Amino acid sequence: MNTHLSAAGTASGTAAASADWTGLIARDEFATDAARLSAVRARDAAADGHFVYAVATTGVYCRPSCAARPARRENISFHADGAAAQAAGFRPCKRCRPDEPPLAVRHAAAVAAACRTIDAAEEPPALAVLAAAAGLSPHHFHRIFRAATGVTPKAYGSARRAARLRAGLDRGERVTNAIFGAGYGSSSRFYENAGERLGMTPAAFRDGGRDTALRFAVGRCSLGAIIVAASDRGIAAIELGDDPERLVHGLQDRFPKATLIGGDAGFEELVARVVGFVEAPAGGLDLPLDVRGTAFQERVWQALRAIPAGRTATYTEVAAAIGLPKAVRAVAQACGANPAAVAIPCHRVVRTDGSLSGYRWGIERKLTLLQREGAR
Predict the structure, then answer these.
(1) Which of the residues 150, 265, 302, 338 has the least number of beta carbons within 10 Å of its own beta carbon?
(2) What phi and psi, each to the nearest 5 degrees, are found at residue 307?
(3) pLDDT value at residue 24
């Protein structure tokens, strides 16, 4: 099934600092030498920042998580921080660099600096250039950038260029000026994937969908009213609701200047297939989709489509599946932005305790869909 998605997202921000009382609890955990020694033996990163340990035979001090070979207990001393260790005559380890910010903080700063560089550049800088500025190998930098933002540096650069192009077109700039102003070296390079970025020609996008045809039809199913819209590329929207007129207005709001064409007999047949799929989701829908979202939304939607009928997954599990275990809230937001009900099965995502959370088209519809699939 072909899915067309655009990547117009931006990098995720770094996590907020922990509350003060959390730090106090952590310090209590490492209040004794026995607890500190256990953290050092386990290379527990959670202990970093609460104390350092020094080794008499090497004359260096390290973070608890340092990967250096363990020293004998009689050679280890514990110190409140790096300043105390240096006052005792020890120098910082060159491997874990305990006199610098934690590794996670350094990586976050490197990624943020790279994002600023990409944003300011006319054309996305090469991976090697970004990695060199961060003081990392290209492979290592690529890995930490993707872990922090959810996309590769190349995808982030492409997304930022697409965002600049959209902004230029929204301002009413000439198409050619907007293309070059966004950083595309030539108009031909942009037009190679213009459809995937905008879902239509740049001129049509600038005019709010002018000269773009969307076939649509409104019908009824056991879940209420349903509207199906499709471009030449595939299904652009499947929406459920109680008021057919509101569903049509919602489609008009998304493409205010597009030409909405009532479905002919052939399109009515497609709508009938979609309705049949909604009535029996386990049968699958073998039709192409033409839905666009941010790069992050694309990853979430692809993960949702991998959840088989009759099964559910938690928001936490979906976040882990896309390699961003801390992005649980962002995953929930991507589910809420899903434009294709049932085809992108966000109804199969539940809370950690198995209870149902919100659903864009109503919690009762979510429950009904899960019951039909045998998941409830």
Answers:
(1) 265
(2) -80, 120
(3) 36
Residue range 75-98: average pLDDT?
Answer: 92
Residue 10 CA neighbour count, 13 Å, CB half: 9
Q: What's the N-to-C CA distance of the chain in angstroms?
A: 27
Q: Which residues are catalytic?
A: 62, 346
Q: Please name the residue that has the structure tokens 């809370």.
A: 351
Stated as kind and residue range, the H or E segment containing 33 is: helix 33-42
The alpha carbon of residue 187 and the mean position of all alpha carbons in its chain are separated, in whole angstroms, by 29
What pLDDT digit, counting tens, does each position of 231-284 carry? Answer: 887 888 899 999 888 888 888 877 676 778 876 777 888 888 898 888 888 777
Helix (H) or strand (E) holding 35: helix 33-42
List the Cα angle 41/46/49 in 5-degree steps. Answer: 100
Contact 349, 304 (CB under 8 A): yes
Q: List the one residue out of 125, 114, 123 whose CA is nearest residue 182.
A: 123
DSSP structure class, residue 347: G
Residues 6+ apart with CB under 8 A from 138: 127, 128, 131
Cβ within 8 Å of residue 166, ≥6 positions away? 8, 198, 205
Q: Which residues of 316-329 are buried (b: 16+ CB within 10 A; e: fewer)?
A: bbbbbbbebeebbe
Reading the block at residue 358, the tokens are: 């919100």
Predicted pLDDT of residue 26:
41
Which two structure tokens, joined as six digits, stand for 304? 């949702």
Strands 52-55 and 224-230: unpaired
User: Angle 363-365-366 (CA atoms, 0-180°, nearest 5)?
Assistant: 65
Q: How do beta strands 259-262 and 60-62 pair?
A: unpaired
Buried b vs exposed e over 184-194: b needs ≥16 C-beta within 10 Å? beeeeebeeeb
Three-class DSSP category at 91:
strand
For the four alpha carbons of 169, 170, 174 and 180, in that order, the dihedral sign comes to: negative
Would you state the structure tokens that stand for residue 65, as one six-digit string? 């998580």
Question: Pairing between strand 76-79 and 52-55?
Answer: antiparallel
Instruction: Write the single-letter amino acid at 322.
Output: I
Would you state the pLDDT for residue 196? 45
Q: State the CB neighbour count (10 A cutoff) for residue 103.
A: 15
Instruction: Return d(Cα 156, Cα 152) in angstroms, integer.
Output: 6
